[in-house]
């Protein structure tokens, strides 16, 4: 890599879920462009080997990991504290960690796992780091969502899926929440120099779904034979994190590096505001 491609030299980036799939490719690309990259991982062994791999492949040694199980709010808070104890700026935050769960699980905080991991961790981590992000303008927040949001609703009467749980229902709701959060955050950040955008990576043959069992896993594994690589899947995340073309774009959703419209529900400001309030309530200490 030639020196003039190190356009992110001096920038600090954090990628969650950077120990597999789309996240690791995104983190590597940011390191390749010269940034200091923080790999947020939950597994020490995987985090160490991810950092080693990125350092080796990019020649950039400013790559570190911070451990956190993002489904546990105490750990999200510790991730933020650990980060702030070491870094004074955060130019790019990529909220990427996510999963789908065949059965209803509860987190250590007593919350439904899909909603807690896929949405509340984005919400809480961003909130905790927002002062640092604002102190680093121009800065960017990128939320990895999914076209699985289409057809989903935020079930405020049963947001935790206690009455009725379905893997894709919970997943779709969480990915719609990513978009509602992105748009509401963008409204709050308008004119601040911080942008908030979301994306669908495409259908990617990553480790996604490897925690599932039975028929769902088999079907997903079969379908993944026809899916794109994680390298391809990470392209839109990398584009939103780095391209000058989107430096001033705020509150949009991208697929294949192109701005596209999302579901009708995702543009409902009342739903966005209500979700924000519920998320605040569910993440307060
Ligand atoms: N794959 C697709 O087709 C697809 C399509 C649309 C959207 N997406 C979205 O893309 C994002 C990345 O998915 P992917 O396909 O790259 O999946 P992946 O290969 O399974 O990677 C998921 C990452 O999230 C991390 N993670 C999972 N649970 C965590 C937790 N409790 N705490 C901290 N980190 C946790 C994983 O850590 P470990 O390495 O320790 O497991 C891994 O690094 C997700 O938000 C997903 O919803 C994926």
Write up what this structure looks like.
The chain is of the alpha/beta class and 285 residues long. It has one domain (3-278): NAD(P)-binding Rossmann-like Domain (Rossmann fold, 3-Layer(aba) Sandwich), CATH 3.40.50.720. It has helices at residues 21-32, 44-58, 73-86, 113-134, 167-189, 214-224, 230-233, 235-242, 269-283; strands spanning 12-16, 36-41, 63-67, 92-95, 139-144, 194-200, 253-255, 258-260. Strands 3-2-1-4-5-6-7-8 form an 8-stranded mixed β-sheet, with helices on both faces. The model has no long low-confidence stretch (mean pLDDT 96). Residues 17, 19-23, 41-43, 46, 69-71, 96-99, 117, 144, 146, 200-201, 203-204, 206-208 line the site of NADP nicotinamide-adenine-dinucleotide phosphate.
Terminal Cα span: 45 Å
Global structural class: alpha/beta
User: What is the CATH top level name?
Assistant: Alpha Beta
- Structural domains: how many: 1
Indicate the proportion of strand residues.
Answer: 5-15%
Q: Major sheet: order of its strands?
A: 3-2-1-4-5-6-7-8
- Largest sheet features: 8 strands, mixed
- Please give the share of residues in helix: 40-55%
Query: What is the string of SSEs from the N terminus onward?
Result: EHEHEHEHEHEHHHEEH
The low-confidence runs, each spanning 5 or more residues with pLDDT under 50, are none
- Nearest-integer average pLDDT: 96
Shape: globular
Per DSSP E runs of 2 or more residues, the count of β-strands stands at: 8
The CATH homologous superfamily is termed NAD(P)-binding Rossmann-like Domain
CATH fold group: Rossmann fold
Put simply, the count of helices is 9
Bound molecules: NADP nicotinamide-adenine-dinucleotide phosphate
Radius of gyration: 18 Å
CATH architecture label name: 3-Layer(aba) Sandwich
């Amino acid at each position: 890599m030639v020196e003039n491609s190190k356009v992110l030299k001096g920038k600090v980036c954090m990628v969650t879920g950077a120990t597999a799939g789309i996240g690791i490719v995104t983190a590597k690309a940011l390191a390749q462009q010269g940034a200091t990259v923080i790999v947020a991982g939950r597994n020490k062994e995987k985090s160490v080997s991810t950092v080693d791999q990125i350092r080796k492949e990019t020649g950039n040694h400013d790559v570190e990991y911070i451990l956190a199980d993002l489904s546990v709010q105490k750990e999200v808070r510790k991730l933020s504290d650990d980060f702030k104890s070491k870094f004074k700026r955060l130019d790019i935050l990529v909220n990427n960690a996510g999963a789908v769960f065949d059965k209803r699980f509860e987190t250590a905080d007593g919350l439904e796992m899909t909603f807690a991991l896929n949405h509340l961790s984005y919400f809480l981590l961003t909130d905790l780091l927002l002062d640092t992000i604002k102190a680093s303008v121009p800065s960017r927040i990128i939320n990895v969502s999914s076209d699985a949001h289409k057809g989903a609703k935020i079930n405020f009467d049963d947001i935790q899926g206690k009455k009725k749980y379905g893997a894709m229902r919970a997943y779709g709701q969480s990915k719609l929440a990513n978009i509602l959060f992105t748009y509401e955050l963008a409204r709050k950040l308008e004119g601040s120099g911080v942008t908030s955008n979301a994306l669908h990576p495409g259908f990617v043959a990553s480790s996604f779904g490897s925690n599932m069992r039975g028929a769902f896993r088999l079907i997903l594994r079969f379908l993944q034979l026809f899916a794109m690589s994680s390298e391809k899947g990470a392209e839109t995340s990398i584009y939103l994190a780095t391209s000058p073309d989107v430096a001033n774009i705020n509150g949009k959703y991208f697929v294949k590096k192109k701005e596209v419209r999302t579901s009708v529900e995702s543009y409902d400001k009342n739903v966005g505001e209500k979700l924000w309030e519920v998320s605040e309530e569910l993440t307060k200490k």
